[in-house]
Amino acid sequence: MKVLVAVKRVIDYNVKIRVKADHSDVDLTNVKMAMNPFCEIAVEEAVRLKEKGVATEVVAVTIGPKAAQEQLRTALALGADRAIHIQTDERAESLAVAKLLAKVVDEEQPGLVILGKQAIDTDNNQTGQMLAALTNLPQATFASEVVIDGDKVHVTREIDGGLQTIALTLPAIVTTDLRLNEPRYAKLPDIMKAKKKPLDVKTPADYGVEVASKVSLLKVESPAERKGGVKVASVDELIDKLKNEAKVL
Ligand code: AMP
């Protein structure tokens, strides 16, 4: 079974986000970029399926600028067999990404597609769902456990009330939640080997998909600075502050 994994290049989660002085966007100058953490979990799950002998090939795909090949090389170092880069400098929105991924699904015919539940830059949480709609494949979002059983995949999902387990007929689409696994670190020899693994470069036009954004970004603002907290000496003082300063009682 072939597993297709979608990975996105985003700002490293350790970086403090800066907004451009003119508020037109987030400032990406000299900012460390990395693979979206939920996509790392997706790659890890695909590689584990290969190590268990369930998957035969792991293909990583990204849509983004030339530099996004760094994240594909990371996926290859973590154990993916080959990669597809759909290169664009446009801000590719979820629907365009899902349309491109649907074309790749059509071409590659994977048994399983794994995406992150959300990208931590835009927090959209919709690409997997859109891909399921476009390909008409069954979907299990927010997976915390994935077990392949013949032509079925049993997925435990993290939902508001607890855990839900569902069975989907393959081929299917799964999006990863935080507790699915703990991704490994790439080892130096694997990083070297990854440089020689195949990486196909395509364009959205090769798939006949228009990625030009239909949404204009009007303004980006940092969240309001939080005021420092204070320690109170007694419950009476706390109640007094809540009543007379915060005016919430
Ligand atoms: P989102 O719906 O944007 O929050 O993203 C959810 C998941 O969709 C990500 O974790 C990726 O697996 C996939 N995805 C989103 N954007 C891209 C992209 N530009 N290239 C590849 N995969 C993407």
TrEMBL record:
Ranges for domain Electron transfer flavoprotein alpha/beta-subunit N-terminal: 23-211
Alphabetical UniProt keywords: Electron transport, Transport
Pfam families: ETF
GO biological process: one example: carboxylic acid catabolic process
InterPro entries: ET-Flavoprotein_bsu_CS, ETF_a/b_N, ETF_b, ETF_beta_N, Rossmann-like_a/b/a_fold
Cofactor requirements of the protein: AMP
Record-level Gene Ontology MF annotations: electron transfer activity
Subunit structure: Heterodimer of an alpha and a beta subunit.
Family membership: Belongs to the ETF beta-subunit/FixA family.
Known function: The electron transfer flavoprotein serves as a specific electron acceptor for other dehydrogenases. It transfers the electrons to the main respiratory chain via ETF-ubiquinone oxidoreductase (ETF dehydrogenase).
Protein name (record): Electron transfer flavoprotein subunit beta
Organism expressing this protein natively: Halovibrio variabilis
UniProt lineage: Bacteria, Pseudomonadati, Pseudomonadota, Gammaproteobacteria, Oceanospirillales
Gene, per the UniProt record: etfB
